[in-house]
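Q: Got a minute? One more chain.
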Amino acid sequence: MTRSRVGTPGLLLRHTSTGITGSLLVALLVAIAVFATTVAPRALVTLGTDELQHRLGELSSLRDITGLGRIGLVGGLADPTAEELLGPTDHAIQQSASLLRPPLGELAGTPRWVARTAQQDAVLPEGAPAARVRLKLAVDLAWGDGIRIVSGDAPSAWAGSDDGTVDAPLDIAISQATGEAMGVTEGALLRYGALTLRVAGVYAPTDPQDAYWAHAPDLAEPSVSAPDGVVPTVTTSAYISPDSAPGLLNTFAAGALSAWIPIDASTITYGDAAEIATQTRTRTATNFTLPAAGELRFSSRFADAIDQTAARVVAASALLALALSGLLGVLLAVVTLGIGAIVERRRAALVLIGARGASGLQLRGAMALEGLIVALPAAILGAAAAVVLVPEPVDASAWVLPVLVAASVPLVFAVRAGPHDVRARRRDLRSRGGRVRVIAEALLVGAAALALFLLSRRGLAASASAVGIDPLLALTPVLLAAAVCALALRLYPLPLRLVLDRVRGGDSAVGLVGAARAVRAPVHGPTASFALVLGVTVVVFSSVLGTTLSVGVTRAATAEAGADIKVRAVEIAPDTLATIAGLDGVRAAAALTRIPGAQLDDDGGTSGVTLVLTDTAALHAMHPELPQLDARDGGRIPVAVSDDLPLIGDDARLGSAEVVVQHRRAPRSLPGVTRDWVLADSRFASELGREGIVADLLLIAVDDADAVDRIAASAERTVIDALSEQGRATVTVTTARGVLDDARSSPVIAGIEGALPIAAGAALLLTLLALALATLAAGAARSHLVGVLRVIGADRRQQRGILVWESAPVVIVSILVGVGLGLALPFVVTSAVDLSAFVGGDVAPSPVIDPLTVVLAVCAVLVTAVVAGATALALGRRLTPAVTLKMGER
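A: Always. Here it is, folded:
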């Protein structure tokens, strides 16, 4: 006997190269799966970093670490210089930044500080406009770095002393805006207690947007209060020369020191966020000691902003984990179907090899080796592409899922390479299966129930300090889909058997053969059905969740704005309100007068509240949840109160007026106030002792959303025209659309809203591929069926009918189950994940089911199933009895 010259490697090569198209398809799917699982955690970290930088960028100077305290000035020095007096304090403040350890220390800039005296009245010279000036003197060693002298000169050193020896006037420098508000220029003399101040120079900030002026606004712009009929009050600060400080020891000792460490958030990363928040809180937890008994109490909103951003990122991570885990499940099911198609193609070769003496272990080993050859290069390419595309550092746990996905491919190859007969076994479906199937289904249902219980009990996010997701809980959609699919496949033959019993008595061969085939050997087995159920679930879930988040963001933005348009001003007169209410396109306008410190009395005691007066009919038109309170109740004034106030008795009084509480509402349901409020109609203002108090908040509702900008501009002009020059600076206009645009500019919101449609589209494509692969895997059985049908005389219409019967019941049941699960899953998610951190606002949004969106999603799935079915029919028509049947086989 001649020995074959082809060795084992050659045989394996020839074996794996047969039908290489299927192997390439599986390799592509493996590369996609590994790429997705590798890039997902990196993308989430990148998304967190972008959101963190976006959020902290909005905070501007509020993210800086600021300190407030007192400066230590060493006394008893003989003729001290500014450096001897202030240098130790400056050095210590600089040290406060250098002591910060990375990663916070890497974000910290050069500290700045300003020492101010206590506030005193400054008397303007004769001829200046009548005004009261409240002035502080300020010293800053680097005061000249951010200003330019507009007129005059920089202040010179002062040789006098505040201990009673006062010689020449003390030179100061004031901002240009302060000079205009006081009506003075360089050379003007002001009385300041026992001192005489001389305006040596007038300056303007070099960059008004510099963060320095956010921390020292009184040195750039004065605060002017000008009530009607009252002399305006100008509150400001003025620089002195640092060399003048030695003569003002007593004056500055009674003042305050403010310092700040600038924080640059442009380089912060999400991975360092938790540690940075901890370091910030550690820095602000204790006072910072300065020389000569000085100290600073640091504070910052930096850590709180990080926590809020982390909560939003964790919520987004949870949503993406739930949506993408289903997509990953579909992808793995498709990979399994592809492997099944390859193994089915190898069936004849495996039977022949087994007949020649190969053991089951050898057969499985050969197929596992083929799986390794297919999966390993694809996995490496997928992982490398993910790392190159998103080079974000992650920990070792991020590699667990990609490795498991890649390792599962050889395992599935080996499992599917079980014992094979020459003839394909008929896969009879029965309502009762074997013991292994029952145990597997019980374990699957138990795992799904456990995941659902844990998800509802403790939520999805493992920690707010990192993008940490519990894998078991993230796989809840996959487990639920698998459990429901298993139950559906166990139960669905029962009604089909009833149909089969009915058609047996009829004369339709198509119905009889089709129903029998659907019961005994459906084209789409458990894996294909699972892929279809999970694919439909992902499509419907993504559409419902997308609608829920979009509506939630919109509602939160509207609640934050309070109305379509919100105007704040120091005064909104009734005539101004009437003019705005009459603008074209305005549906309703309500001016709110907020009066803090009102007293609400009853038998239980006295409560301090914020009284809000408005036209409640107009407010009700904008906010139907708020009541209309313009009719007396038994002679008493009706009011509504916030829920955070204690229960109020029947004999309640607001000031001297008797009131009755008709309604209680959520604290944040009333725009402009957050808690402890009492709402009353403005027609009762005089009885409540509040007549003549003007409103400071205006809410406007419009008929046409496209007219918001036009009406907002008109309302702003109307309010500004009615105010004095000083009052115009207090006017701010906010629109709900602007708040919504700001919310949608968030990288997290934009990322989620962009990812959900992509997940739905990918699920549709994978579902189509799953159905196509299931059709391909059943090709041999279908070939025999078509051949037999043609031999016995079935025409093409009857063949199509039987082939449709073969797959339609499973497809229809899978779609119905997937739609039901997709509609139910958002309710599970919203009960376990706090979406308020994601969409904003205080109330977590409930699922919003848009029928049109759901119908479109289901139609897309149906079209996908029809395309796959048409492909199966086309393949069936290409087969001839001569190819599919052998003499004597049937």
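A: The radius of gyration is 38 Å.
Q: Perfect, thanks.
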